[in-house]
Recover the amino acids of this structure.
């Protein structure tokens, strides 16, 4: 598709068949702050849409927006990446594209997380967008696009333990366990496995009787309460209204609601974080470190070993034997040298 190649825009275009549908696919890179390349992308997309109705484009646009990047909440609107995101939003709205990203981060570099990789489409339905765990030797994650398969959003019902009535649970379980104990006492031979199963069922029935349940997804946050959830719902409605009718009044209202949501979310997250920190003085040492790891988000970060290429094959830069030798030299040999040095000093004294 060389007719869509323009100087100043790094892009590759091809025609693929999605089932029986002829689809234009593209891979585009836009350098940070390159607004000229963004305008060229607008021009190319306009030319493609004028003659094709099914398009999928994957972009490394170095642009940030709440449409695809949850981590940009609270960032200054004057940053180049935010302005690039606004320009890309205008292109998406102009040609009625759908953003396939689900809010997951696509770029990881140390503790820096963002979503500069955006996938957009038009004219296609039942597209499943996901990140796969493949080592690309790049901070960018691999993205899998499955066309023709309905997306399955994970929603599960869990117990809201913060609203659980423990006093009522104590009364209910006391009565239920007394009845279960009387039943066991009246029986001559009772299998231990059967008793354990009956005990488990009895306690579970007591929990189900009193539990208050809530529905959560993979994007649920512990600091999002009912008030904030209603504000987020109102923000989505406002953004949709702004996309359908982009006038000054709708844009101003969308910006006002967005700032309101950002303020409420920052305040709610800070209050939750402080309440969790207050629990550190009340829990045991083991629970304390679990809580610290949770607050500092250390449990989700994994150390990636450094690889090297030797004779065409990948090997670890530091082997297990080398690590073991270093630990022995530091903790054993060094300690022994210190003891010998202390003995020599004592002899001299």
């Amino acid at each position: 598709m060389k007719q869509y190649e323009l100087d100043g825009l790094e892009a590759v275009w091809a025609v693929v068949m999605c089932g029986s549908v002829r689809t234009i696919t593209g891979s585009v890179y836009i350098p940070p702050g390159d607004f000229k390349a963004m305008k060229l992308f607008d021009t190319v997309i306009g030319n493609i849409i004028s003659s094709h109705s099914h398009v999928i484009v994957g972009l490394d646009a170095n642009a940030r927006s709440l449409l695809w990047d949850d981590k940009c909440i609270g960032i200054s609107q004057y940053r180049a990446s935010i302005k690039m995101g606004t320009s890309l939003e205008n292109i998406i709205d102009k040609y009625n594209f759908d953003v396939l990203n689900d809010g997951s981060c696509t770029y990881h570099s140390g503790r820096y997380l963002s979503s500069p990789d955006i996938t957009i489409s038009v004219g296609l339905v039942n597209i499943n967008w996901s990140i796969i765990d493949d080592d690309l030797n790049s901070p960018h994650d691999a993205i899998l696009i499955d066309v023709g398969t309905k997306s399955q959003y994970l929603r599960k019902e869990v117990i809201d333990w913060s609203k659980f009535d423990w006093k009522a649970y104590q009364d209910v379980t006391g009565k239920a366990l007394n009845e279960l104990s009387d039943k066991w006492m009246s029986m001559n031979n009772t299998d231990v496995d059967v008793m354990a199963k009956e005990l488990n069922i009895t306690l579970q029935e007591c929990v189900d009787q009193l539990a208050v349940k809530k529905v959560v997804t993979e994007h649920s946050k512990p600091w999002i309460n009912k008030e904030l959830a209603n504000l987020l719902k109102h923000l989505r409605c406002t953004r949709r209204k702004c996309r359908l009718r982009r006038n000054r009044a709708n844009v101003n209202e969308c910006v006002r609601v967005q700032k309101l949501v950002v303020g409420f979310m920052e305040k709610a997250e800070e209050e939750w974080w402080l309440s969790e920190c207050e629990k550190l003085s009340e829990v045991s040492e083991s629970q304390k470190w679990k809580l610290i790891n949770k607050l500092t988000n250390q449990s989700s970060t994994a150390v990636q070993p450094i690889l090297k290429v030797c004779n065409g094959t990948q090997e670890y830069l530091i082997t297990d034997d080398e690590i073991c030798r270093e630990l022995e030299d530091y903790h054993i040999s060094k300690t022994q040298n210190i003891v010998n040095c202390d003995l020599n000093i004592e002899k001299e004294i």
